[in-house]
Amino acid sequence: MRINPVANDYNLRRLYFTIFLQIKQNGMLNFKKRKENESEMTRIDWRLEVEKRKDVLLAETQEFLKINSVFDEATITKERPFGNGIDQALSYLLNKAESYDFTVKNLDGYAGKIELGTGEESVGILCHIDVVPAGEGWTSPPFSADIRNGRIYARGAIDNKGPTMAAFFALCLVKELKLPLTKRVQLILGTDEERGWRCVDHYFKHEEMPTVGFAPDADFPIIHAEKGIADVLFEWTVEQGAAAALTLRKFSAGERLNMVPDRAIAELEGERAELDQLERRFRKHLLEQQHNGEAIFTGDEQLTLMYEGVAAHGSTPEAGINAGVELAAFLTPFSFQEQAVSYLRMITALLKNGTRGEALGIAQEDQVSGRLTVNGSLFSWDEKEAGFGLNIRYPVTADGQTCLQRLEQKMSEFGAKMMVKDHMTPSYVDAKHPLVRTLQAVYQRQTGEEPSLLSTGGGTYARTLATGVAFGPLFPGRKDVAHQKDEYIEIEDLLKAAALYAEAIYELAGGQ
Protein backbone atom coordinates (compact mmCIF):
# COMPACT_ATOMS: atom_id res chain seq x y z
CA MET A 1 0.00 0.00 0.00
CA ARG A 2 1.36 3.36 -0.99
CA ILE A 3 1.35 6.17 1.58
CA ASN A 4 1.19 9.81 0.54
CA PRO A 5 3.75 11.52 2.83
CA VAL A 6 2.19 14.95 2.26
CA ALA A 7 -1.32 13.79 3.12
CA ASN A 8 -0.06 11.83 6.09
CA ASP A 9 1.81 14.89 7.40
CA TYR A 10 -1.35 16.97 7.00
CA ASN A 11 -3.45 14.45 8.90
CA LEU A 12 -0.93 14.33 11.73
CA ARG A 13 -0.95 18.13 11.97
CA ARG A 14 -4.76 18.10 12.15
CA LEU A 15 -4.63 15.46 14.86
CA TYR A 16 -2.05 17.40 16.90
CA PHE A 17 -4.06 20.60 16.51
CA THR A 18 -7.26 18.88 17.64
CA ILE A 19 -5.50 17.49 20.72
CA PHE A 20 -4.05 20.92 21.45
CA LEU A 21 -7.50 22.52 21.27
CA GLN A 22 -8.95 19.91 23.62
CA ILE A 23 -6.16 20.40 26.14
CA LYS A 24 -6.56 24.16 25.93
CA GLN A 25 -10.33 23.98 26.28
CA ASN A 26 -10.09 21.64 29.27
CA GLY A 27 -7.49 23.86 30.84
CA MET A 28 -9.63 26.92 30.31
CA LEU A 29 -12.63 25.12 31.76
CA ASN A 30 -10.67 24.05 34.82
CA PHE A 31 -9.26 27.54 35.17
CA LYS A 32 -12.72 29.01 34.78
CA LYS A 33 -14.08 26.58 37.37
CA ARG A 34 -11.33 27.52 39.80
CA LYS A 35 -11.98 31.21 39.27
CA GLU A 36 -15.73 30.68 39.74
CA ASN A 37 -15.03 28.86 43.01
CA GLU A 38 -12.69 31.63 44.12
CA SER A 39 -15.22 34.26 43.11
CA GLU A 40 -17.96 32.40 44.97
CA MET A 41 -15.78 32.27 48.07
CA THR A 42 -14.94 35.98 47.92
CA ARG A 43 -18.62 36.86 47.50
CA ILE A 44 -19.62 35.07 50.68
CA ASP A 45 -20.11 37.39 53.63
CA TRP A 46 -19.30 34.83 56.29
CA ARG A 47 -20.28 37.01 59.20
CA LEU A 48 -23.61 37.88 57.59
CA GLU A 49 -24.35 34.20 57.03
CA VAL A 50 -23.63 33.49 60.70
CA GLU A 51 -25.76 36.46 61.75
CA LYS A 52 -28.73 34.98 59.84
CA ARG A 53 -28.43 31.91 62.06
CA LYS A 54 -27.68 33.77 65.31
CA ASP A 55 -30.87 32.86 67.17
CA VAL A 56 -30.45 29.15 66.50
CA LEU A 57 -26.75 29.25 67.36
CA LEU A 58 -27.41 30.96 70.70
CA ALA A 59 -30.36 28.75 71.63
CA GLU A 60 -28.53 25.50 70.91
CA THR A 61 -25.34 26.74 72.56
CA GLN A 62 -27.34 27.46 75.70
CA GLU A 63 -28.92 24.00 75.57
CA PHE A 64 -25.49 22.43 75.25
CA LEU A 65 -23.99 24.48 78.09
CA LYS A 66 -26.82 23.51 80.44
CA ILE A 67 -25.55 19.92 80.42
CA ASN A 68 -23.26 19.33 83.41
CA SER A 69 -20.42 17.54 81.62
CA VAL A 70 -17.99 17.19 84.53
CA PHE A 71 -16.30 13.83 84.96
CA ASP A 72 -18.45 11.77 87.34
CA GLU A 73 -16.81 8.65 88.70
CA ALA A 74 -19.99 7.57 90.47
CA THR A 75 -21.91 7.06 87.21
CA ILE A 76 -19.21 5.40 85.08
CA THR A 77 -20.26 2.35 83.07
CA LYS A 78 -18.76 0.51 80.11
CA GLU A 79 -20.91 2.57 77.74
CA ARG A 80 -20.30 5.79 79.70
CA PRO A 81 -16.57 5.72 80.52
CA PHE A 82 -16.58 9.23 82.04
CA GLY A 83 -20.02 9.33 83.62
CA ASN A 84 -23.56 10.35 82.77
CA GLY A 85 -23.04 14.08 82.22
CA ILE A 86 -20.29 13.75 79.63
CA ASP A 87 -22.22 11.01 77.84
CA GLN A 88 -25.29 13.24 77.75
CA ALA A 89 -23.30 16.06 76.17
CA LEU A 90 -21.77 13.72 73.58
CA SER A 91 -25.15 12.24 72.70
CA TYR A 92 -26.70 15.71 72.42
CA LEU A 93 -24.26 16.90 69.79
CA LEU A 94 -24.11 13.66 67.82
CA ASN A 95 -27.91 13.49 67.71
CA LYS A 96 -28.06 17.13 66.64
CA ALA A 97 -25.56 16.47 63.84
CA GLU A 98 -27.49 13.39 62.71
CA SER A 99 -30.67 15.45 62.50
CA TYR A 100 -28.76 17.81 60.18
CA ASP A 101 -27.81 14.85 57.93
CA PHE A 102 -24.14 14.65 58.83
CA THR A 103 -22.34 11.33 59.07
CA VAL A 104 -21.80 10.65 62.78
CA LYS A 105 -20.01 8.05 64.86
CA ASN A 106 -19.87 7.36 68.60
CA LEU A 107 -16.62 5.66 69.55
CA ASP A 108 -17.67 3.71 72.64
CA GLY A 109 -18.49 6.84 74.61
CA TYR A 110 -14.85 7.97 74.51
CA ALA A 111 -15.20 10.33 71.55
CA GLY A 112 -17.44 11.30 68.66
CA LYS A 113 -17.01 12.18 65.01
CA ILE A 114 -19.15 14.41 62.78
CA GLU A 115 -18.10 14.22 59.14
CA LEU A 116 -18.86 16.15 55.94
CA GLY A 117 -17.58 15.62 52.39
CA THR A 118 -15.52 13.05 50.54
CA GLY A 119 -11.92 12.66 49.51
CA GLU A 120 -8.74 10.87 50.46
CA GLU A 121 -7.42 13.72 52.61
CA SER A 122 -9.15 15.15 55.65
CA VAL A 123 -9.26 18.26 57.83
CA GLY A 124 -9.73 17.67 61.55
CA ILE A 125 -11.33 20.10 64.00
CA LEU A 126 -10.64 18.81 67.49
CA CYS A 127 -12.88 19.98 70.33
CA HIS A 128 -13.69 18.76 73.83
CA ILE A 129 -17.03 18.66 75.58
CA ASP A 130 -15.93 17.85 79.14
CA VAL A 131 -15.44 20.70 81.62
CA VAL A 132 -13.65 21.24 84.93
CA PRO A 133 -15.66 21.28 88.19
CA ALA A 134 -17.69 24.45 88.59
CA GLY A 135 -16.42 25.44 92.03
CA GLU A 136 -18.24 27.96 94.20
CA GLY A 137 -19.07 31.65 94.21
CA TRP A 138 -20.91 31.97 90.89
CA THR A 139 -23.29 34.89 90.34
CA SER A 140 -25.72 32.57 88.55
CA PRO A 141 -25.77 28.76 88.58
CA PRO A 142 -22.81 27.46 86.56
CA PHE A 143 -24.98 25.33 84.27
CA SER A 144 -27.84 27.77 83.77
CA ALA A 145 -26.21 29.38 80.70
CA ASP A 146 -27.58 32.80 81.63
CA ILE A 147 -27.22 35.63 79.13
CA ARG A 148 -26.22 38.94 80.70
CA ASN A 149 -24.52 42.00 79.24
CA GLY A 150 -23.91 40.36 75.89
CA ARG A 151 -22.33 37.26 77.38
CA ILE A 152 -23.29 33.64 78.00
CA TYR A 153 -22.24 32.60 81.51
CA ALA A 154 -21.62 28.91 82.13
CA ARG A 155 -18.91 26.43 82.99
CA GLY A 156 -17.52 25.47 79.58
CA ALA A 157 -18.68 28.67 77.85
CA ILE A 158 -15.15 29.48 76.66
CA ASP A 159 -13.47 26.14 77.48
CA ASN A 160 -14.57 24.44 75.30
CA LYS A 161 -18.28 23.85 74.69
CA GLY A 162 -19.03 27.34 73.38
CA PRO A 163 -16.27 27.17 70.72
CA THR A 164 -17.33 23.59 69.93
CA MET A 165 -20.77 24.91 68.98
CA ALA A 166 -19.15 27.68 66.92
CA ALA A 167 -17.19 25.06 64.97
CA PHE A 168 -20.27 22.86 64.58
CA PHE A 169 -22.34 25.71 63.19
CA ALA A 170 -19.48 26.65 60.89
CA LEU A 171 -19.64 23.14 59.48
CA CYS A 172 -23.42 23.46 59.16
CA LEU A 173 -22.95 26.74 57.28
CA VAL A 174 -20.57 25.20 54.74
CA LYS A 175 -23.06 22.36 54.23
CA GLU A 176 -26.08 24.66 53.85
CA LEU A 177 -24.27 26.85 51.30
CA LYS A 178 -23.44 23.67 49.33
CA LEU A 179 -19.84 24.71 48.90
CA PRO A 180 -17.62 22.27 46.99
CA LEU A 181 -15.18 20.25 49.09
CA THR A 182 -12.33 18.05 47.88
CA LYS A 183 -11.42 16.83 51.37
CA ARG A 184 -13.43 15.39 54.22
CA VAL A 185 -14.01 17.59 57.26
CA GLN A 186 -14.12 15.80 60.61
CA LEU A 187 -15.36 17.49 63.77
CA ILE A 188 -13.81 15.30 66.47
CA LEU A 189 -15.35 15.47 69.95
CA GLY A 190 -13.17 14.54 72.90
CA THR A 191 -14.56 13.77 76.35
CA ASP A 192 -11.54 13.61 78.69
CA GLU A 193 -9.42 16.66 77.87
CA GLU A 194 -9.52 18.08 81.38
CA ARG A 195 -8.17 14.91 82.95
CA GLY A 196 -6.12 12.34 81.07
CA TRP A 197 -6.83 12.60 77.30
CA ARG A 198 -7.92 8.96 77.23
CA CYS A 199 -10.54 10.01 74.70
CA VAL A 200 -8.09 10.94 71.93
CA ASP A 201 -5.93 7.92 72.71
CA HIS A 202 -9.00 5.75 72.10
CA TYR A 203 -10.04 7.74 69.03
CA PHE A 204 -6.74 7.39 67.19
CA LYS A 205 -6.56 3.69 67.94
CA HIS A 206 -9.67 3.26 65.81
CA GLU A 207 -9.71 6.23 63.40
CA GLU A 208 -7.34 7.79 60.90
CA MET A 209 -5.13 10.77 61.58
CA PRO A 210 -6.43 13.89 59.77
CA THR A 211 -4.06 15.33 57.17
CA VAL A 212 -4.10 18.73 58.91
CA GLY A 213 -6.30 20.32 61.53
CA PHE A 214 -6.90 22.85 64.24
CA ALA A 215 -8.29 23.02 67.77
CA PRO A 216 -10.62 25.91 68.69
CA ASP A 217 -9.44 25.82 72.29
CA ALA A 218 -6.94 28.63 72.85
CA ASP A 219 -6.27 32.09 71.38
CA PHE A 220 -6.58 33.92 68.09
CA PRO A 221 -4.82 34.55 65.79
CA ILE A 222 -2.90 31.23 65.66
CA ILE A 223 -0.95 29.22 68.21
CA HIS A 224 1.66 27.16 66.39
CA ALA A 225 3.79 26.21 69.41
CA GLU A 226 2.55 24.46 72.57
CA LYS A 227 4.82 23.83 75.52
CA GLY A 228 5.50 20.41 76.95
CA ILE A 229 3.25 19.54 79.90
CA ALA A 230 4.10 17.32 82.85
CA ASP A 231 1.82 16.44 85.79
CA VAL A 232 3.88 15.31 88.75
CA LEU A 233 2.85 14.05 92.20
CA PHE A 234 4.94 13.85 95.40
CA GLU A 235 4.15 11.73 98.45
CA TRP A 236 5.47 11.24 101.98
CA THR A 237 4.62 8.95 104.86
CA VAL A 238 3.97 11.02 107.98
CA GLU A 239 5.53 9.75 111.18
CA GLN A 240 4.27 10.68 114.62
CA GLY A 241 6.50 13.24 116.33
CA ALA A 242 6.66 15.06 119.60
CA ALA A 243 3.60 16.98 120.73
CA ALA A 244 3.46 20.70 119.98
CA ALA A 245 1.46 23.71 121.09
CA LEU A 246 -0.71 23.35 118.00
CA THR A 247 -1.61 20.31 115.92
CA LEU A 248 -2.29 20.38 112.20
CA ARG A 249 -4.91 17.68 111.68
CA LYS A 250 -5.66 18.27 108.02
CA PHE A 251 -4.54 20.55 105.21
CA SER A 252 -6.06 20.44 101.75
CA ALA A 253 -6.32 22.52 98.57
CA GLY A 254 -7.02 21.94 94.89
CA GLU A 255 -9.28 19.79 92.74
CA ARG A 256 -7.27 19.41 89.54
CA LEU A 257 -3.59 19.57 88.63
CA ASN A 258 -4.28 22.03 85.82
CA MET A 259 -6.11 24.53 88.03
CA VAL A 260 -4.76 27.09 90.48
CA PRO A 261 -6.45 26.16 93.80
CA ASP A 262 -8.97 28.82 94.79
CA ARG A 263 -9.72 27.37 98.24
CA ALA A 264 -7.55 25.88 100.99
CA ILE A 265 -8.62 24.47 104.35
CA ALA A 266 -6.63 23.76 107.50
CA GLU A 267 -8.07 21.95 110.52
CA LEU A 268 -6.21 22.79 113.74
CA GLU A 269 -6.29 21.71 117.37
CA GLY A 270 -4.71 23.19 120.48
CA GLU A 271 -5.26 25.17 123.62
CA ARG A 272 -7.93 27.82 123.26
CA ALA A 273 -5.57 30.68 124.03
CA GLU A 274 -3.18 29.58 121.26
CA LEU A 275 -6.04 29.19 118.79
CA ASP A 276 -7.50 32.58 119.72
CA GLN A 277 -4.15 34.23 118.99
CA LEU A 278 -3.82 32.39 115.66
CA GLU A 279 -7.36 33.35 114.67
CA ARG A 280 -6.70 37.06 115.34
CA ARG A 281 -3.51 36.97 113.31
CA PHE A 282 -5.29 35.20 110.47
CA ARG A 283 -8.00 37.84 110.22
CA LYS A 284 -5.37 40.59 110.32
CA HIS A 285 -3.40 38.82 107.59
CA LEU A 286 -6.45 38.65 105.33
CA LEU A 287 -7.03 42.38 105.75
CA GLU A 288 -3.40 43.21 105.01
CA GLN A 289 -3.29 41.02 101.91
CA GLN A 290 -6.78 42.06 100.82
CA HIS A 291 -7.67 38.40 100.52
CA ASN A 292 -10.79 36.56 101.64
CA GLY A 293 -11.20 33.72 104.09
CA GLU A 294 -12.89 32.44 107.23
CA ALA A 295 -11.89 31.25 110.69
CA ILE A 296 -14.47 29.05 112.42
CA PHE A 297 -14.28 27.35 115.81
CA THR A 298 -15.81 23.89 115.49
CA GLY A 299 -15.17 23.10 119.14
CA ASP A 300 -13.51 24.69 122.14
CA GLU A 301 -10.12 23.48 120.94
CA GLN A 302 -10.74 23.04 117.21
CA LEU A 303 -10.32 25.79 114.62
CA THR A 304 -10.84 25.55 110.87
CA LEU A 305 -9.25 28.09 108.56
CA MET A 306 -10.48 28.63 105.00
CA TYR A 307 -8.34 30.69 102.62
CA GLU A 308 -9.94 31.93 99.41
CA GLY A 309 -7.67 32.46 96.41
CA VAL A 310 -8.36 33.10 92.72
CA ALA A 311 -8.64 30.19 90.31
CA ALA A 312 -6.77 30.26 87.00
CA HIS A 313 -5.72 27.85 84.31
CA GLY A 314 -2.61 25.83 85.13
CA SER A 315 -0.82 27.29 82.11
CA THR A 316 -1.04 30.81 83.60
CA PRO A 317 -0.53 30.34 87.34
CA GLU A 318 0.57 33.95 87.69
CA ALA A 319 -2.98 35.01 86.82
CA GLY A 320 -4.40 33.41 89.96
CA ILE A 321 -3.88 33.46 93.72
CA ASN A 322 -2.88 30.01 94.94
CA ALA A 323 -4.89 29.45 98.11
CA GLY A 324 -2.83 26.39 99.09
CA VAL A 325 0.47 28.24 98.90
CA GLU A 326 -0.92 31.32 100.64
CA LEU A 327 -2.37 29.37 103.57
CA ALA A 328 0.80 27.31 103.95
CA ALA A 329 2.89 30.49 104.02
CA PHE A 330 0.66 31.98 106.70
CA LEU A 331 0.85 28.87 108.90
CA THR A 332 4.61 28.34 108.57
CA PRO A 333 5.70 30.48 111.59
CA PHE A 334 3.43 28.67 114.06
CA SER A 335 4.46 25.79 116.34
CA PHE A 336 2.92 22.63 114.87
CA GLN A 337 4.25 19.08 115.07
CA GLU A 338 7.65 18.73 113.38
CA GLN A 339 6.63 17.05 110.11
CA ALA A 340 3.74 19.45 109.63
CA VAL A 341 6.12 22.40 109.97
CA SER A 342 8.49 20.79 107.45
CA TYR A 343 5.65 20.29 104.98
CA LEU A 344 4.42 23.87 105.27
CA ARG A 345 7.92 25.32 105.02
CA MET A 346 8.72 23.23 101.96
CA ILE A 347 5.61 24.47 100.10
CA THR A 348 6.42 28.04 101.02
CA ALA A 349 10.09 27.81 100.04
CA LEU A 350 9.45 26.11 96.70
CA LEU A 351 6.29 27.85 95.50
CA LYS A 352 5.63 31.11 97.35
CA ASN A 353 8.08 33.34 95.53
CA GLY A 354 7.26 32.61 91.91
CA THR A 355 5.83 30.35 89.25
CA ARG A 356 8.95 30.00 87.06
CA GLY A 357 10.55 27.01 88.80
CA GLU A 358 13.67 28.79 90.12
CA ALA A 359 13.45 27.27 93.60
CA LEU A 360 12.87 23.85 92.06
CA GLY A 361 15.96 24.13 89.89
CA ILE A 362 14.13 23.79 86.56
CA ALA A 363 13.74 27.40 85.36
CA GLN A 364 14.39 27.90 81.61
CA GLU A 365 13.01 29.67 78.53
CA ASP A 366 13.32 29.98 74.75
CA GLN A 367 12.43 32.56 72.08
CA VAL A 368 9.64 30.51 70.53
CA SER A 369 7.51 29.73 73.59
CA GLY A 370 8.89 31.74 76.52
CA ARG A 371 9.44 30.67 80.12
CA LEU A 372 8.73 27.47 81.98
CA THR A 373 5.82 27.75 84.44
CA VAL A 374 4.90 25.77 87.56
CA ASN A 375 1.48 25.49 89.18
CA GLY A 376 1.32 23.98 92.67
CA SER A 377 -1.90 22.03 93.24
CA LEU A 378 -3.59 19.10 95.01
CA PHE A 379 -2.13 19.77 98.45
CA SER A 380 -2.99 17.23 101.13
CA TRP A 381 -1.84 16.54 104.67
CA ASP A 382 -3.09 14.39 107.51
CA GLU A 383 -1.34 12.55 110.32
CA LYS A 384 -0.59 9.51 108.14
CA GLU A 385 0.46 10.81 104.74
CA ALA A 386 1.12 13.98 102.82
CA GLY A 387 1.53 15.07 99.23
CA PHE A 388 1.17 17.74 96.61
CA GLY A 389 1.15 18.01 92.85
CA LEU A 390 2.80 20.18 90.23
CA ASN A 391 1.61 21.08 86.74
CA ILE A 392 4.71 22.06 84.73
CA ARG A 393 4.74 23.70 81.28
CA TYR A 394 8.19 23.76 79.69
CA PRO A 395 9.47 25.46 76.47
CA VAL A 396 9.20 23.70 73.10
CA THR A 397 12.98 23.50 72.70
CA ALA A 398 13.61 22.11 76.19
CA ASP A 399 14.34 18.48 77.04
CA GLY A 400 11.42 17.32 79.17
CA GLN A 401 13.16 14.26 80.56
CA THR A 402 16.12 16.33 81.76
CA CYS A 403 13.71 18.73 83.45
CA LEU A 404 11.98 15.90 85.29
CA GLN A 405 15.28 14.37 86.36
CA ARG A 406 16.36 17.67 87.89
CA LEU A 407 13.03 17.96 89.68
CA GLU A 408 13.28 14.45 91.09
CA GLN A 409 16.78 15.15 92.35
CA LYS A 410 15.66 18.37 94.02
CA MET A 411 12.66 16.79 95.72
CA SER A 412 14.72 13.86 96.98
CA GLU A 413 16.30 16.37 99.36
CA PHE A 414 12.90 16.53 101.09
CA GLY A 415 12.46 12.76 101.13
CA ALA A 416 9.66 12.88 98.58
CA LYS A 417 8.64 10.01 96.35
CA MET A 418 7.96 11.36 92.84
CA MET A 419 5.47 9.98 90.32
CA VAL A 420 4.94 11.36 86.79
CA LYS A 421 1.21 11.09 86.27
CA ASP A 422 1.20 12.41 82.72
CA HIS A 423 3.72 13.87 80.27
CA MET A 424 2.97 15.39 76.87
CA THR A 425 5.86 16.52 74.70
CA PRO A 426 5.77 19.94 72.96
CA SER A 427 4.03 20.64 69.64
CA TYR A 428 5.32 22.94 66.89
CA VAL A 429 4.29 23.73 63.27
CA ASP A 430 6.60 25.84 61.12
CA ALA A 431 5.40 29.34 60.27
CA LYS A 432 5.68 28.63 56.53
CA HIS A 433 3.45 25.57 56.54
CA PRO A 434 0.35 25.89 54.27
CA LEU A 435 -1.94 25.23 57.24
CA VAL A 436 -0.55 28.24 59.07
CA ARG A 437 -0.51 30.43 55.97
CA THR A 438 -4.13 29.57 55.14
CA LEU A 439 -5.43 30.36 58.62
CA GLN A 440 -3.44 33.59 58.67
CA ALA A 441 -5.08 34.68 55.41
CA VAL A 442 -8.57 33.86 56.73
CA TYR A 443 -7.98 35.73 59.97
CA GLN A 444 -6.61 38.82 58.22
CA ARG A 445 -9.45 38.95 55.68
CA GLN A 446 -12.17 38.81 58.31
CA THR A 447 -10.64 40.91 61.09
CA GLY A 448 -8.27 43.24 59.24
CA GLU A 449 -5.72 42.54 61.96
CA GLU A 450 -2.19 41.18 61.79
CA PRO A 451 -2.32 37.37 62.05
CA SER A 452 0.67 37.03 64.36
CA LEU A 453 1.83 33.61 65.51
CA LEU A 454 1.69 32.74 69.20
CA SER A 455 2.88 30.10 71.63
CA THR A 456 1.09 28.78 74.70
CA GLY A 457 1.64 26.88 77.88
CA GLY A 458 -1.82 25.42 77.44
CA GLY A 459 -2.32 21.98 76.03
CA THR A 460 -4.84 21.59 73.22
CA TYR A 461 -5.78 18.64 71.07
CA ALA A 462 -3.74 20.23 68.28
CA ARG A 463 -0.71 18.48 69.74
CA THR A 464 -2.28 15.09 69.06
CA LEU A 465 -2.27 15.80 65.32
CA ALA A 466 0.62 15.11 62.98
CA THR A 467 0.14 18.71 61.77
CA GLY A 468 -2.11 20.87 63.90
CA VAL A 469 -2.42 24.31 65.48
CA ALA A 470 -4.78 26.06 67.88
CA PHE A 471 -7.12 28.63 66.30
CA GLY A 472 -9.16 30.73 68.74
CA PRO A 473 -11.60 31.26 70.33
CA LEU A 474 -10.14 33.97 72.60
CA PHE A 475 -9.59 37.21 70.69
CA PRO A 476 -6.70 39.57 71.46
CA GLY A 477 -7.43 41.81 74.43
CA ARG A 478 -10.14 39.57 75.89
CA LYS A 479 -9.80 38.30 79.45
CA ASP A 480 -9.16 34.59 79.79
CA VAL A 481 -11.79 33.26 82.21
CA ALA A 482 -11.34 29.55 81.55
CA HIS A 483 -11.54 27.47 84.75
CA GLN A 484 -12.71 30.51 86.75
CA LYS A 485 -16.01 31.20 88.46
CA ASP A 486 -18.44 33.18 86.28
CA GLU A 487 -16.79 31.79 83.14
CA TYR A 488 -18.35 33.33 80.02
CA ILE A 489 -18.06 33.82 76.28
CA GLU A 490 -18.86 37.11 74.56
CA ILE A 491 -21.75 36.55 72.16
CA GLU A 492 -20.03 38.82 69.64
CA ASP A 493 -16.93 36.63 69.84
CA LEU A 494 -18.96 33.44 69.45
CA LEU A 495 -20.39 34.77 66.18
CA LYS A 496 -17.01 36.02 64.94
CA ALA A 497 -15.41 32.68 65.72
CA ALA A 498 -18.13 30.78 63.84
CA ALA A 499 -17.54 32.95 60.77
CA LEU A 500 -13.78 32.41 60.93
CA TYR A 501 -14.18 28.65 61.33
CA ALA A 502 -16.58 28.46 58.39
CA GLU A 503 -14.18 30.17 56.01
CA ALA A 504 -11.25 28.20 57.40
CA ILE A 505 -13.11 24.93 56.73
CA TYR A 506 -13.80 25.94 53.14
CA GLU A 507 -10.26 27.19 52.52
CA LEU A 508 -8.65 24.07 53.95
CA ALA A 509 -11.07 21.52 52.47
CA GLY A 510 -12.51 23.35 49.44
CA GLY A 511 -11.89 22.93 45.75
CA GLN A 512 -9.05 25.40 45.21
Explained architecture:
It is a single chain. The chain is of the alpha+beta class. It folds into two domains: 46-226 and 427-509, Aminopeptidase (3-Layer(aba) Sandwich); 229-424, Alpha-Beta Plaits. The protein is 36% helix and 25% strand. It has helices at 5-43, 46-52, 54-65, 84-99, 161-176, 198-206, 272-289, 323-331, 338-351, 400-412, 434-447, 491-509, and strands spanning 103-107, 111-116, 122-128, 146-148, 151-153, 184-190, 212-215, 218-219, 222-226, 228-237, 246-253, 263-270, 292-299, 302-308, 365-366, 370-371, 373-381, 385-394, 417-424, 427-428, 453-456, 468-470, 473-474, 488-490. The strands form six sheets. An eight-stranded antiparallel beta sheet has the order 13-14-12-11-17-18-10-19, covered by helices on one side. Strands 1-2-6-3-7-22 form a six-stranded mixed beta sheet, with helices on both faces. A three-stranded antiparallel beta sheet has the order 4-5-24. Strand 13 (292-299) and strand 14 form a beta hairpin. Helix 5 crosses helix 12 (491-509), helix 8 crosses helix 9 and helix 11 packs across helix 12. The longest helix has 39 residues, at 5-43. The two termini are 53 Å apart. Residues 1-8 and 27-41 have low confidence and may be disordered.
Summarize the structure.
The chain has 512 residues and is α+β, with helices and mostly antiparallel strands. It has 12 helices and 24 strands. The strands form 6 sheets. An 8-stranded antiparallel β-sheet has the order 13-14-12-11-17-18-10-19, covered by helices on one side. The chain has a 6-stranded mixed β-sheet with strand order 1-2-6-3-7-22, with helices on both faces. A 3-stranded antiparallel β-sheet has the order 4-5-24.
